[in-house]
Amino acid sequence: MLSVPRAALLLLPLLALAACNRNPLLVERSPCPAIGIPVHVGSYTRFDPPESRDADAIDFVAQLTDLSASCTPGEAMLVSDVSFTVTAVRRRPGPAREVYLPIFVSLVQGGNVLVSKQLTGVSLQFPEGQLRAQSRGGARAEVARSAATLPADIQRQITRQRRPSEEDALIDPLSDPQVRAAIRAASFEVLVGFQLDDAALAYNVGK
Question: Is residue 169 domain-resident?
Answer without folding.
Answer: no
